[in-house]
Amino acid sequence: MKYLPLLWSSLWRKKVRTVFTLLSIFIAFLLFGLLMTIRTAFSFGVEIAGLDRLVLIHKVSLIMSLPVSYLERLRATEGVTMATHNTWFGGVYQDPSNFFAQIGVEPEPFMKLYPEYRVPPDQMAAWLADRQGVMVGVDLARRFGWKVGDRVPILGTIWQPKEGQVWEFNIAGMYDGEPGIDKTQFFFRYDYLNENRRGGQGQVGWYIVKIADPGRAQAMGATFDEMFANSSAETKTTTEKGFVEGFAKQVGDIGAIMVAILIAVLFTMLLVAANTMAQSVRERTSEVGVLKTLGFSNGSILGLVLGESVLIALLGGAAGLGTAWFIVQQGDPTGGMLPIFVLSGRDVAIGAGLVVLLGLVAGALPAATAMNLKITDALRRG
Amino acid sequence: MLHWTSQTIAITALNLRTIPQRLSSSGVAIIGIAGVVVVLVSVLSIAAGFTAAMQNSGSPTRALVMRNGADSEMTSGVSGTEADLIRQAPGLRRDGQTALASAELYVIIDLPKISTGSAANVPMRGIGPQTLAVRDNTTLVEGRMLEFGTNEIVVGRGASAQFSGLTLGSEVRSGQNTWKVVGIFDAGGGVSETEIWCDARVLQGAYRRGNSYQLVVAKLDSSDTFDTFRDWLTANPQLNVQVRRETEYYAQQSRALSGLIRGVGFGIAALMGIGAVFGAILTMYTAVSTRSREIATLRALGFDASSVVVSVMVESLALAAIGGVIGGVLAYLAFNGYQTSTMNFQTFSQVAFAFRVTPALLALGLIYALLMGLVGGLFPALRAARLPIPAALREL
């Protein structure tokens, strides 16, 4: 610690160089933070998807519907604590580019299955009292400036109402949740849809089943699929996590692309920083000689040079990660295409680890050179 | 003027010849710039590939008729009687008595993606006897056309390469149906190469669709008869449909995704570019400061300050150009033609496409590299010009 002032002053020996090194490290870790956020966004919340929730879809594909009659049979199965169904609506609000997920649900069981969606009790009561009521995510409400009580018309695409083409909804309430939870969804009542659509009565999109023992997810899934085998609508059951993962894989391996870009960025920055460190130690050969003459041990010289490089990395890296975090706090810049837009604690920790690593690796070679300098050579070269 | 030019050339040549002596710091600048160009070009090549696949799908002489309000084939619905009405519209091409209009179904089935092994939404299109005449950019490259009334399918090249079990002669089980692959088709790189085609009537039965379709694809008499065709259909009170040119439809389908990719690509490249400019500035500062005595000597000998500026700028631009070329070549070798597939959110189904490193993207990368070199060289060059001669001569 007592060497900190010495480190500090050698850091500012060449101001311009230090500033630019700091800036390039800053940029590298700003990018790190943002790319990790995009990576999380493209995993569609797989980290928070429940292992004790199973998803049953039609075996042929997700777009095929299942009969609503499966619900009672699922609820009656041993080991099932709760079950409900969801239906994809796919409507258009004002313009097709305003995409957001609209899902028909059974309000009470649905909210019990997803305790992570937090709703004020009076808004929940309002939703139960109004068939046309919807529960919208706070991010979605902010995007369109909706308030509780607003009337929202949505153009039906898959499901047409009996009259005209437009479905009318009333905003009954808004749900909130931890960071990392998708707060851009629009949950409306299945009974409203089912009574008013032109066709497809009694059909639902998929089932969500909560099981008592997550360890038996595989076996339970097999039981369900067997139950509905050889019927007109066979099912395929996966855990919610597996379902989300499968969905993310369909989009493509965004994660791998992000990691490849990050490696390119960090490698480049490492080169820049290492080169600057080496340059700065070369220029100070005679100073190192003086320090050694004054009795500094080889170990402390090594420590000083490494310390200087780690200090630069820490200053630049902390600023970069901090700025990335600040930007991410401002929310999704695409206006709804990336509903889960968070910089996770795990990624910040990885970033901090990389900062220290960058400092150590960049300083290693110059530090070793400085340590091995002979006093006589060092002083002569000056 | 001639004097100034020869001075500038002399110093510049000296600078460029001594680059090898400053190999490590010049190398850093080159690698930094090359890294930025690789990232910029490769990310944009994803968008270029996706857009190209979408554009190759559309022809201005084809029109898509869907239910009013449907934003994609997936959500549209057209009944058999409506399809018959649409066939009577003026403006579409006729082969003798038959209108070149194809009523089609569009569904998705789950098949494993080869690269990940997990299920993917593969689009399946139910077609009719007129389809090949309407979609005239489609040719069979292997096997033969399916026989109508059977469970035979033909598969697009992209689908055959991306999803397992879609090779010629193999059988595909889906639900209670078994489909037999009898042909592989090419659609000029368009989206339909990711599709599986089967007989629409067989698919109606398999998916319990009765006598209904999702859209009608019509071959127009010429690109100019579109308005006639559309106006007749939209004015008909028995129909509630929306008519779009195929080109417009696919342009709209690709807008969201390619916009997102471009935004991400330019954003990353801009940030990385700033980082690389710092790298270039550092390199050129080092280059100037290690030679400050030389520069001062030249100035003392009567060389002009502006020729020193130019020489530093030229060196910086040369390094940037080398970096830009290396980056472009690397991106081309690594990514051009790289086959992949992603989800088209509008239709909820997979689209196979290849990354495209186009000459325009390579030029963009090089321009960006030179820009970085220009900015990176500017401050060190000014500093070199402002060096106080006596002090610099005394310097180490």
Brief summary of the model shown:
The complex is a heterodimer of chains A (about 375) and B (about 400). Chain A is of the alpha+beta class. Chain A has 2 domains: about 5-45 and about 255-380, no CATH class; about 55-210, no CATH class.
Write the layout of secondary structure elements.
The complex is a heterodimer of chains A (382) and B (396).
Chain A: H1 4-11, H2 15-42, E1 53-58, E2 66-67, H3 70-76, E3 80-88, E4 102-105, H4 107-113, H5 121-129, E5 133-137, H6 138-144, E6 151-155, E7 166-175, E8 186-189, H7 190-196, E9 203-204, E10 206-211, H8 217-227, E11 235-239, H9 240-251, H10 254-283, H11 285-293, H12 298-329, H13 345-372, H14 375-381
Chain B: H1 2-17, H2 23-57, E1 62-67, E2 78-79, H3 80-86, E3 94-95, E4 98-99, E5 101-112, E6 119-127, H4 131-134, E7 139-143, E8 152-156, H5 157-162, E9 171-174, E10 177-186, E11 196-199, H6 200-206, E12 212-213, E13 215-219, H7 226-235, E14 241-245, H8 246-290, H9 292-300, H10 305-335, E15 339-344, E16 349-354, H11 359-386, H12 389-394
Helix pairs in contact in B: 1-10, 2-8, 2-10, 2-11, 8-11, 10-11
Features:
heterodimer, A: 382 residues, alpha+beta, 2 domains, nine-stranded mixed β-sheet, two-stranded antiparallel sheet, 14 helices, 11 strands, B: 396 residues, ten-stranded mixed β-sheet, elongated
